[in-house]
Amino acid sequence: MRILSATVRGFRNLQESTFEFSPRVNLVLGRNGEGKTNLLEALNYYALGRSHRGARIDDLIGFETESAFVQLEIETKPDDVMRCEFAFERGKGNRFFLDGEVVGRRADLVGILNTVYFDPESIRLVRGEPSRRRHFVDQGVSESEPIFLSHLTAFQRTLKQKNGLLRDLKRGFADYSTAREELRAWNRELAHHAVEISIGRDDYAHRLTPYADASHRALTGGDCGLEFAYRPALETVRSKLAEEVPENASNDPIPSPLSFCEKEQLERDILSEIDYIMESEIKRGRTLCGPQFDDFEVRQDELDLRVFGSQGEGRAAAISLILARSDVLHEKRRIRPVIFFDDIFSELDSQRGQRLQEMASGLHQVFIATARPGDVAGWDPPEMKTWSVHAGRFDQTESP
Amino acid sequence: MEHSRNNNGVANDGGEFQSPALERLVRSLSRLPGLGRKSATRLALHLVSESAAAEELVESTAQACEQVCHCGRCGAITEQDPCRICTSERRDPKLLCIVATPVDILPFEKAGFYRGRYFVLGGLLSPLDGVRAEDLPFGRLVERVRLDGVDEVIIALDSSVEGETTALYMQRLLQELPRDSDRDALHMTRLATGIPVGGALAYIDEVTLQRAFQFRRDF
């Protein structure tokens, strides 16, 4: 997958311009606040259907204009070129188009343009709160298995409903006589989706580990292995994971005990676990267990990097994990995503920074934004294109 | 109140019009589902210029409001209570189709294949919208199943999270009903989900396709 060209108009501080990108390495140089990240945000917007920085639509439109428009030409496979466009109007929201036709639902955007985005925020993956790791995994599973996303969305909706009911009960707004039967019904719906979420997350952690391990060894110079493991909140799922994998259970090189368990049985077990704590949940007025509390452990040579290890080790591990996401996508769907490095080199020591540059040269297509030309000085990978940006204006230049 | 000032900046009670009555009509029309202020204005201007159409509308609205009611047994929209479906001898009382809203009856009746009766819930369980089990007529449903000697309940609800949960709730509720010893257990079924007739397989979404695959049948 590659972004061949882009036309940008009215997006944040970017001046109207058209870019012809390199199929390999694209470098954007400029001081902070000049518009590097804005360009990367515009290029990444279509992939997510929203801003990766969580910006509101009106904030994405330039100060002096009422609308914005971005057109990308992407190559999904050799010689298969598609036109992706989106437009904003102040106060009216966004609209997406594929080859000139409106894309109605945001869910339909999933899988058209696949990207992986690194910025100083995203590489807090390892030492940050568990929700970051859940989100990372859920995004990864969803891009290779769209059905997972529908289970996740349904699960979250059900959870909201159940929490609403528990809240009402605690405040005394709701009738107790039917409450337990109602909670049981919501629990059954939750358990149904929880099974699929648990299996998806565990399978993904198993697939991710070998790639993350390889990237981590390359990035840290050799000896440190990396392991990424699912740590489910549900006792039922934990004990299932601890079970031995039967021999010849599957042809998969990395089988997880969850992937060949009896789904209906697991669903029943999860349901009894959630039903069992119903009285405590009613007392506390919120849900107390389920995949919404899952976590993932990141181990470097038996050391849990979530808790131990330096900031630098945490960042390196995060980069390895995020790079591994693109490998899993390739394994599952034969897609190499477009990769963005936004101000990442400043987060690494110079040796690791250089190793990451070497790795980046071998990647499919990358966009790199940096404020410190020194971090990439002397780097001259084949087919690199360089831009310098000043107050939203981009000029193509020689490599640094 | 962006429309409440005229060009001189002086407050004007008629809104953007020079008529408070017209403004009131536009406001009440724009409160109807699916109508924005623009369409409401278009309708209002049409009504005031076509007085015959307006009178007809006023009269038919008044008549409908007076005569239309909900069937006390099934909840359908009707002019006689109990409704024609509930009283028709040609309808099988042992077959009961449960739907969320009265509108959901219409496609069944239009298709004409269904020979049983209906039960309208009037909503789906949704604590976020303040809908709890005590707000839905489950007591009446149980009574209906018992009195009519229903043999099969067909659940025809939306395939949303709320629809699924409401179905699961009813399943437990009806499962626990005591049955006469000489009768078989109550049969509960749900509508199938899958590929629409005449639909192109290539454009089906993944979830629907997976369901259709899961519930494929022998051929």
Helical content of chain A (DSSP H or I, runs of 4+):
40-55%
Which two chains touch over the largest interface? A-B, 24 and 19 residues
User: How large, in whole angstroms, is the Cα Rg of chain A?
Assistant: 23 Å
Report the biggest beta sheet of chain B as strand number plus sense, adding barrel if it closes.
4 strands, parallel
Listing every helix as H and every strand as E from the N terminus to the C terminus, the arrangement of chain B reads HHHEEHEHEHEHEH
Whole-number mean pLDDT of chain A: 90
Q: Compute the number of helices of chain B.
A: 8
- How does the helix and strand content of chain A classify structurally? alpha/beta
Give a brief description.
The complex is a heterodimer of chains A (400) and B (219). By secondary structure, chain A is of the alpha/beta class.
Description:
The complex is a heterodimer of chains A (400) and B (219). With 400 residues, chain A is an alpha/beta fold. Chain A has ten helices and 15 strands. Chain A is 41% helix and 22% strand. The longest helix of chain A has 42 residues. The two termini of chain A are 26 Å apart. Chain B has 219 residues and is an alpha/beta fold. Chain B is built from eight helices and six strands; from the N terminus they run αααββαβαβαβαβα. The N and C termini of chain B lie far apart (64 Å). The chains are: A alpha/beta (400), B alpha/beta (219). At the A-B interface, helix 4 and helix 5 of A face helix 7 and helix 8 of B.
